[in-house]
Amino acid sequence: MKRIPTKMEGLDDVLGGGIPDGSVVLVSGAPGTMKTSLTYHILHANALDGVRGLYVSLEQSRASLVDHTEGLGYRLEDTGGNLSILDLGMLRKKLTGPTQQPARQGEFGMQRQLRVVKMRGTRHETGYHALVFDNGLRVTRILA
Asked: Which of 13, 22, 53, 95 is the most buried (most CB within 10 A)?
Protein backbone atom coordinates (compact mmCIF):
# COMPACT_ATOMS: atom_id res chain seq x y z
CA MET A 1 0.00 0.00 0.00
CA LYS A 2 1.44 3.38 -1.02
CA ARG A 3 1.75 5.85 1.84
CA ILE A 4 2.12 9.61 2.00
CA PRO A 5 4.80 10.55 4.56
CA THR A 6 3.86 13.05 7.26
CA LYS A 7 7.42 14.39 7.34
CA MET A 8 7.08 14.72 11.11
CA GLU A 9 9.57 13.04 13.40
CA GLY A 10 7.96 10.02 15.07
CA LEU A 11 4.54 10.21 13.40
CA ASP A 12 5.33 8.04 10.38
CA ASP A 13 6.49 5.32 12.81
CA VAL A 14 3.15 5.52 14.65
CA LEU A 15 1.21 5.38 11.36
CA GLY A 16 3.11 2.38 10.03
CA GLY A 17 4.89 4.41 7.34
CA GLY A 18 2.55 7.34 6.71
CA ILE A 19 -1.01 8.04 5.63
CA PRO A 20 -2.46 5.60 3.06
CA ASP A 21 -2.55 7.29 -0.36
CA GLY A 22 -6.04 8.43 -1.33
CA SER A 23 -7.31 8.56 2.25
CA VAL A 24 -9.49 11.30 3.66
CA VAL A 25 -8.33 12.08 7.20
CA LEU A 26 -10.40 13.78 9.90
CA VAL A 27 -8.46 15.27 12.80
CA SER A 28 -10.59 16.17 15.80
CA GLY A 29 -9.94 17.19 19.37
CA ALA A 30 -10.36 19.85 22.01
CA PRO A 31 -9.37 23.47 21.34
CA GLY A 32 -5.67 24.16 21.80
CA THR A 33 -4.45 20.65 21.03
CA MET A 34 -2.49 21.71 17.91
CA LYS A 35 -4.78 20.07 15.34
CA THR A 36 -4.19 22.93 12.91
CA SER A 37 -0.43 22.91 13.38
CA LEU A 38 -0.25 19.13 12.94
CA THR A 39 -2.37 18.89 9.83
CA TYR A 40 -1.04 22.00 8.15
CA HIS A 41 2.55 20.82 8.72
CA ILE A 42 1.80 17.53 6.94
CA LEU A 43 0.04 19.22 4.02
CA HIS A 44 2.62 22.01 3.68
CA ALA A 45 5.66 19.71 3.84
CA ASN A 46 4.22 17.44 1.15
CA ALA A 47 3.11 20.38 -1.02
CA LEU A 48 6.72 21.57 -1.06
CA ASP A 49 7.55 18.20 -2.66
CA GLY A 50 4.82 18.56 -5.30
CA VAL A 51 2.03 16.59 -3.60
CA ARG A 52 -1.34 18.35 -3.85
CA GLY A 53 -3.35 18.82 -0.66
CA LEU A 54 -6.56 20.43 0.60
CA TYR A 55 -7.09 21.89 4.07
CA VAL A 56 -10.79 22.14 4.96
CA SER A 57 -11.64 24.37 7.92
CA LEU A 58 -14.98 24.39 9.71
CA GLU A 59 -13.89 26.55 12.64
CA GLN A 60 -11.13 28.93 11.61
CA SER A 61 -11.33 31.52 8.86
CA ARG A 62 -8.88 31.34 5.97
CA ALA A 63 -7.26 34.63 6.99
CA SER A 64 -6.82 33.45 10.58
CA LEU A 65 -5.42 30.11 9.42
CA VAL A 66 -2.87 31.72 7.10
CA ASP A 67 -1.84 34.15 9.84
CA HIS A 68 -1.39 31.29 12.35
CA THR A 69 0.56 29.01 10.01
CA GLU A 70 2.81 31.76 8.69
CA GLY A 71 3.69 32.46 12.34
CA LEU A 72 4.96 28.87 12.47
CA GLY A 73 7.02 29.40 9.31
CA TYR A 74 4.65 27.71 6.83
CA ARG A 75 4.16 30.17 3.95
CA LEU A 76 1.31 29.20 1.64
CA GLU A 77 3.02 30.94 -1.29
CA ASP A 78 5.98 28.55 -1.00
CA THR A 79 3.81 25.57 -1.99
CA GLY A 80 3.53 26.62 -5.64
CA GLY A 81 -0.24 26.14 -5.69
CA ASN A 82 -0.05 22.55 -4.44
CA LEU A 83 -1.90 23.41 -1.21
CA SER A 84 -5.43 24.83 -1.16
CA ILE A 85 -7.48 26.06 1.79
CA LEU A 86 -11.26 25.66 1.88
CA ASP A 87 -13.02 27.77 4.53
CA LEU A 88 -16.57 26.57 5.13
CA GLY A 89 -17.50 29.78 6.94
CA MET A 90 -21.19 29.62 6.16
CA LEU A 91 -21.46 26.26 7.91
CA ARG A 92 -19.32 27.51 10.78
CA LYS A 93 -21.99 30.08 11.68
CA LYS A 94 -24.64 27.38 11.91
CA LEU A 95 -22.63 24.82 13.88
CA THR A 96 -22.61 24.82 17.65
CA GLY A 97 -21.34 22.23 20.04
CA PRO A 98 -20.19 21.62 23.58
CA THR A 99 -17.03 23.32 24.71
CA GLN A 100 -14.16 21.03 25.52
CA GLN A 101 -11.16 21.33 27.77
CA PRO A 102 -7.83 22.13 26.10
CA ALA A 103 -4.70 20.04 26.47
CA ARG A 104 -4.05 18.42 29.82
CA GLN A 105 -1.70 19.93 32.41
CA GLY A 106 0.46 17.18 33.86
CA GLU A 107 3.61 16.73 35.89
CA PHE A 108 5.69 17.50 32.78
CA GLY A 109 3.73 20.59 31.78
CA MET A 110 1.25 20.82 28.94
CA GLN A 111 0.76 17.63 26.96
CA ARG A 112 -1.04 17.46 23.67
CA GLN A 113 -2.15 13.95 22.93
CA LEU A 114 -2.39 12.27 19.54
CA ARG A 115 -4.20 9.01 18.90
CA VAL A 116 -4.68 7.28 15.59
CA VAL A 117 -8.00 5.53 15.96
CA LYS A 118 -8.53 3.70 12.68
CA MET A 119 -7.09 3.49 9.21
CA ARG A 120 -8.64 0.73 7.11
CA GLY A 121 -6.37 -1.96 5.78
CA THR A 122 -3.36 -0.83 7.82
CA ARG A 123 -1.48 -1.94 10.86
CA HIS A 124 -0.64 1.03 13.01
CA GLU A 125 -0.26 1.97 16.63
CA THR A 126 -3.56 2.99 18.21
CA GLY A 127 -2.28 4.12 21.61
CA TYR A 128 -1.83 7.69 22.77
CA HIS A 129 1.25 9.72 21.85
CA ALA A 130 2.43 13.21 22.73
CA LEU A 131 2.52 15.97 20.12
CA VAL A 132 5.46 18.26 20.87
CA PHE A 133 6.45 21.58 19.30
CA ASP A 134 10.17 22.03 19.93
CA ASN A 135 12.11 23.37 16.92
CA GLY A 136 9.36 21.87 14.74
CA LEU A 137 6.64 19.34 15.39
CA ARG A 138 7.34 15.77 16.45
CA VAL A 139 5.48 12.85 17.99
CA THR A 140 6.79 10.88 20.97
CA ARG A 141 5.50 8.26 23.38
CA ILE A 142 3.21 9.77 25.98
CA LEU A 143 4.78 10.86 29.25
CA ALA A 144 2.83 9.78 32.33
From this structure: 53
Q: How far is Cα 59 from Cα 80, in angstroms, rounded to an integer?
A: 25
Q: Which of 36, 22, 6, 9 is nearest to 120 (CA)?
A: 22
Provide the CATH number for the domain around residue 132. Answer: 3.40.50.300
Question: Cα(first)–Cα(last) distance of the chain, in Å?
Answer: 34
Domain hosting 47: range is 3-141
pTM, to two decimals: 0.68
pLDDT 10s digits, 76-94? 999 999 999 998 876 666 6
Q: How far apart are CA 89 and CA 107, in angstroms?
A: 38
Domain total in the chain: 1
